Amino acid sequence: EIIPSANEGTTIQFWMAARLLEAFILLGFTSFMNTKIRTPLLFWGFGGIFFLVSLLILMGWAPILFDDTNGLTTTKIVMEYLVVAILIFAGKRVWDKRQEFNASVYRLLMISIALTMAAEMAFTLYTSLSGITIIVGHIFKLMSYWAIYVALVESTLTQPFKSLTLSSDTFNALPDAIVAVSREGVILHANQSARDASNSIEETLGLQVHDVFHSRQFSAHDCPICRSIYQKDPIHYQEISLDDKWYAITLTPISYQGQGNVVLHVCRDITLHKETTSQYHTANRLYTVLRLTNKAIISSRTKEDLLDSICHIAVKHGGFSMAWIGMIEGNDVVPVSSAGDSNHYLTGINVRVDNSEYARGPVGICGKTGEVA
User: Fold this and answer.
1) What is the pLDDT of residues 224-267, one digit of tens each?
2) How many CA atoms lie within 13 A of 236 on its CB side?
3) Which in 30, 64, 288, 298 has the greatest CB count within 10 A?
4) CA-CA distances (angstroms) from residue 256 to 164, 189, 253?
5) The pTM is what?
6) Which chain positions lie within coiled-coil regions (predicted)?
7) Distance separating alpha carbons of residues 154 and 35, to the nearest angstrom
8) Domains in the chain with CATH codes
């Protein structure tokens, strides 16, 4: 015999201690499931509890739970009901937090708790170690363990792989070019949009991110984005121009495959946004010019005041560097009002509306045809 003093009662004591520990673990799991617990502390804590309980049982200090004459003792039955009560409370906690579980895991946990409670109730009824109720109780326990096992497989293996596949598909479906970049600026991983930028994954991985996504105006050493990568400084938003397009760059330090010196580099094409914004501002300026011109028409007392106001409005509010108005006198266009002519462009200007070479510019064409040129 491994333990000479052990008997059927000793086995039941260990079994009862294990079921109490199981119930408390399940209750603790529902209470601290979102709390990070240090593994060594957990290991040594349970190890200490096991050692203490084993010592109490082997030294004969644990209460008697079964004897051959009377069967189960009152203490044993009370402890079984205590386990059931703990399981009821644990089940209530699982119910309260059901939104935090995967549906199948939640269902399996509730089934396991219910089967364990049924087993504990069966364990309060047997009078001999070969009775039918103890057999039924162990069948319920086996089914309970199976439900827990399936829940563990579902939550720790199946679901993570599904999530990994979903994450990979989502990563590749994003329209932004996203790459994981080492501190040296080398591309380690790329989504589909980033691979499209350099034709294939084989051509993308291992390249310098500067050569693919950054402005050609700077070398990698002088590029402000590359400097941020080298120094692991995040960039929340920075616009760059590349090949007649505009891009918004963000940098976020991440941990990638155990490497801490990695930056997530996101490149978003904002060309359309920039063009739309520019068109909006242009239209808004022109509307302002039109509105103020209408106001000047009403408020100006003389033609000269009106023409001067129109020119100044065009420069000040329209964003034009210079504006001038000319009158056609014979075949000549004579400037009569201007604003913003800091370079004396109008000094000695010769614009005509005849067939001479001085009538071939936009002003001459407009004067001859009466159409915008």
Assistant:
1) 888 888 888 888 888 888 778 888 999 988 877 666 678 888 98
2) 0
3) 30
4) 14, 9, 9
5) 0.45
6) none
7) 21
8) 8-170 (no CATH), 175-269 (3.30.450.20), 293-369 (3.30.450.40)
